Amino acid sequence: MLIIRSVIAILCLCYCCLQTLLEEEAHEEAIFLQIAQLLLLALSGGVKGIRGESDWQCKYSTGFSSTVRPHSVSILEFGAKGDGKTVNTLAFQNAIFYLRSFADKGGAQLYVPPGRWLTGSFNLTSHLTLFLERDAIILASQDSSHWPVIEPLPSYGRGIDLPGGRHRSLINGYELKDVVITGDNGTIDGQGAVWWEWFNSHSLNYSRPHLVELESSNDILISNLTFLNSPAWNIHTFYCSNVQVQNITVRAPSDSPYTNGIVPDSCSDVCIEACHISVGYDAIALKSGWDEYGIAYNRSTSNVHINRVNLQSSAGSALAFGSEMSGGISIIYAEQLHIFNSFSGIKIKTTRGRGGYIKDIVISDIVMENVHVALELTGQCEDHPDDHFDPDAFPIISGITLKNMIGSNITLAGNLIGIHQAPFTAICLSDISLSVTSEPSSSWVCSDVFGFSKSVFPEPCSDLQAPYSNSSLCLSLLYPTGHAEAL
Ligand SMILES: *[C@@H]1O[C@H](CO)[C@@H](O)[C@H](O)[C@H]1NC(C)=O
Ligand SMILES: *[C@@H]1O[C@H](CO)[C@@H](O)[C@H](O)[C@H]1NC(C)=O
Ligand SMILES: *[C@@H]1O[C@H](CO)[C@@H](O)[C@H](O)[C@H]1NC(C)=O
Ligand SMILES: *[C@@H]1O[C@H](CO)[C@@H](O)[C@H](O)[C@H]1NC(C)=O
Ligand SMILES: *[C@@H]1O[C@H](CO)[C@@H](O)[C@H](O)[C@H]1NC(C)=O
Ligand SMILES: *[C@@H]1O[C@H](CO)[C@@H](O)[C@H](O)[C@H]1NC(C)=O
Ligand SMILES: *[C@@H]1O[C@H](CO)[C@@H](O)[C@H](O)[C@H]1NC(C)=O
Ligand SMILES: *[C@@H]1O[C@H](CO)[C@@H](O)[C@H](O)[C@H]1NC(C)=O
């Protein structure tokens, strides 16, 4: 499978190159160079394909008592009606309340049979498995009064859309342990169209809710489900550890405003694997708090492994870091990414006032198709929670490694704009070959960034051309002792 995927990707790229060749003779030389580079990459095994499905990388599962619970009840036993009209919030709340008594008996499962189960916001409990059968659809209510308003997160100081409070998410967990949200490809549908309309017409009273939000919780597994049409983000884990997200599909329309896929926020030990995410804004976004609130809360996102994911972001980035990163983001491994039809491929976002850091990031084995900007680094995300940020709180961006990447139909290879007072350093690029539609000579834009490169086509700006032989910073990150095994 891995070889077939690589070969197809490469054949595809060569086909595109040849097509362009027929159209634009002027680029002939560059294109031949590129084909040669691609073949070289392929031969050297530089571009690894998608591994077999049995080859799971998420290995944190020690905290789970079991995914098969000794007790199971159906939501039907609590008077729920799967007709798509009856509001079942109370049935979900009562069922979860009842299942709390099984916490010290190995936990319990709440079974959701096929049907359309309309509900407002409800809470989970510890040692619980929420299981959605095939054709079971949890439908979010479109009545905003079914989504209670709660305080903003301490590390944000306000809601994401508006100052002040925010609507509680559809499915919530607070200070939980050992929670599994899974199924046989059941669906959680946020019916977000009303929220997008309220957002676009400025008629929200509070910030929009997410589909699933877990806060201060450990040992979380989310798998084998489809998430549709979230009002805002799909899965938001805040200050959690040991979070695994496996084999899920996430979709929201391309024009849905700021719909994000998976957002690990001030979390450690996170593994995201074999997921298909296609949303309006960032498909996977790693965050850790906003300006003075995030600096004071001081909880980083670290030890995250992302592996074998298909990502599409219409207006944002497939894989994003920040822009809220005031608690720091570090030790992130992302590999085997397929990024397509996106505005930006990989993006690091920050600004002065954020403080914090983004460092020790290794992203490898990436295939990009139809992406406007392959790599973006920006120090100019000038949105602040309020006017009380410290303009002298400069973020540190350093130790960002990108290797083994091929791309076709890319407009701009890189747009890298650092911060003058705090340049981005140790940006390490190797074995990258992009078929760009802009002039190769202008396809990298850089300022206040410094780094190393080898075998990068088109040739990056001079500030990124320090020789790799000098790049001890890059290499030490690739093989940090102990980390690869731990992940
Ligand atoms: C849900 O959990 C929150 C936070 O713990 C709590 O304030 C709220 O009352 C809970 N709601 C229900 C219906 O249990
Ligand atoms: C992934 O989920 C689908 C249902 O959505 C299921 O049919 C398939 O077996 C799952 N794959 C793995 C490897 O768990
Ligand atoms: C899972 O369900 C979604 C939505 O119903 C569907 O689009 C997708 O094809 C299903 N996946 C599998 C593996 O059955
Ligand atoms: C905002 O508040 C007004 C006044 O209470 C209410 O009529 C309206 O439905 C609210 N809008 C939303 C989106 O909740
Ligand atoms: C997903 O579903 C497949 C097929 O039923 C099952 O073998 C696998 O254990 C499930 N994975 C997770 C992580 O729930
Ligand atoms: C943030 O926490 C780290 C340890 O996790 C500590 O070393 C650092 O001093 C803290 N920073 C602030 C500003 O409190
Ligand atoms: C190239 O990518 C752009 C998006 O950046 C897309 O609009 C366009 O259709 C793609 N062209 C081809 C030939 O796929
Ligand atoms: C490479 O490292 C050597 C010795 O550490 C140093 O003298 C030289 O200036 C460096 N070259 C570049 C281009 O950074």
Automatic annotation (TrEMBL):
Native source species: Cinnamomum micranthum f. kanehirae
Cleavable signal peptide: 1-19
Keywords: Glycosidase, Hydrolase, Signal
SUPFAM superfamilies in UniProt: Pectin lyase-like (SSF51126)
Family: Belongs to the glycosyl hydrolase 28 family.
MF term (GO), any: polygalacturonase activity
The keyword Hydrolase belongs to this UniProt entry's keyword annotation: yes
Name this protein carries in UniProt: Glycoside hydrolase
Gene Ontology annotations of biological process type: carbohydrate metabolic process
Transmembrane segments: none
